[in-house]
Write a structure and sequence with these properties.
Family: Belongs to the DHPS family.
Shape: globular
CATH class: Alpha Beta
Low-confidence stretches: none
Strand order of the largest sheet: 8-7-6-5-4-3-10-9
Pathway: Cofactor biosynthesis; tetrahydrofolate biosynthesis; 7,8-dihydrofolate from 2-amino-4-hydroxy-6-hydroxymethyl-7,8-dihydropteridine diphosphate and 4-aminobenzoate: step 1/2
GO molecular function: dihydropteroate synthase activity; metal ion binding
Helix content: 25-40%
Largest sheet: 8 strands, parallel
Order of helices and strands: EEEHEHEHEHEHEHEHHEH
CATH topology: TIM Barrel
Pfam family, one: Pterin_bind
Oligomer: single chain
Strand content: 15-25%
Number of strands: 10
Catalytic activity: (7,8-dihydropterin-6-yl)methyl diphosphate + 4-aminobenzoate = 7,8-dihydropteroate + diphosphate
Radius of gyration: 17 Å
């Protein structure tokens, strides 16, 4: 029987890769900052992604790019709530990309399906907010914290450090709610407090990160780890980003978080056909 991932109102079989589409309702995200800052443009982009075959929509109201400013909860809610309200019945799960427990609470009260926390639910109160819900939970490993992650790199084996963190946080979550395990996804946090070499090393060792048999999510889309290798600008990393997502799936990723939904969906269909040996 295929392992399932409970994501709020939705349940996914993990017999195929899941595509999460990124919508940043921000003026300053590294790739699409300002593109979907207005409510109407964010909603339009979401519906385009749905038509392109997205499985989950991941909506963020605060940038985590290097040098970005932290914003207040009230400002983050101002950006997020109208988009959530407009898309809550769009037919695909809504994920909210936030590390603030009060934002998580508002989102859960609006019946969002997933919380994607770059801090891995380490902030005070986060575990208590999410545990009683039925939301999917993405636990990301960030070396350092929001203020210093881009200048703070793991001293020991980054895979071992990730496993230690994931094991600790999963045990914390299970203490809050023993039934939570089928709602948890693990994200190695590529680009968050790791060197370029460490990022690619983690992809090469993804299966070792599958703590407690949890599914794995990888987000590489348009990141500097891509640009450093191919020497291309953020707007010219489509092929390399899709390639890295595809290879991540081959190395064990169950969910890929991407900007370019249609291209990723098509590439994964080809991978599936090859694996199944389809003869037409």
């Amino acid at each position: 029987m295929d392992k399932k991932f409970q994501c709020g109102r939705f349940e996914f079989s993990l017999d195929r890769p899941i595509v999460m589409g990124i919508i940043n309702v921000t003026p300053d995200s590294f790739s699409d900052g300002g593109d979907y800052y207005s409510i109407d443009s964010a909603i339009e982009r979401a519906h385009n992604m749905i038509n392109e075959g997205v499985d989950i929509l991941d909506i963020g109201g605060e940038s985590s790019r290097p040098g970005s400013d932290r914003i207040s909860s009230s400002e983050e809610l101002k950006r997020l709530l109208p988009v959530i309200e407009s898309l809550k019945d769009c037919g695909v799960p809504l994920s909210i990309d936030t590390y603030k427990p009060d934002i998580m609470k508002h989102a859960i009260d609006m019946n969002v399906d997933m919380i994607n926390d770059i801090c891995g639910f380490t902030r005070a109160g986060a575990l208590e907010v999410v545990a009683p819900s039925n939301c999917g939970l993405c636990v990301m490993y960030m070396n350092g914290d929001i203020s210093n992650m881009h200048d703070c790199f793991p001293k020991m084996d980054v895979v071992e450090e990730s496993k230690i963190f994931f094991t600790k946080q999963l045990n914390n979550l299970l203490t809050c709610s023993p039934s939570i395990k089928n709602r948890v996804v693990l994200d190695p946090g590529l680009g968050f407090g790791k060197t370029i070499e460490q990022n690619y090393y983690m992809i090469n060792h993804l299966e070792e990160l599958r703590v407690f048999s949890c599914p794995l999510m990888v987000g590489v889309s348009r990141k500097s780890m891509i640009g450093k290798i191919v020497d291309r600008s953020v707007t010219d990393r489509l092929c390399s980003s899709v390639s890295c997502a595809l290879i991540s799936v081959m190395y064990g990723a169950n969910i890929v978080r991407v900007h370019d939904v249609a291209e990723t969906v098509d590439s994964l269909k080809i991978l599936s056909a090859i694996k199944q040996g389809i003869f037409l």
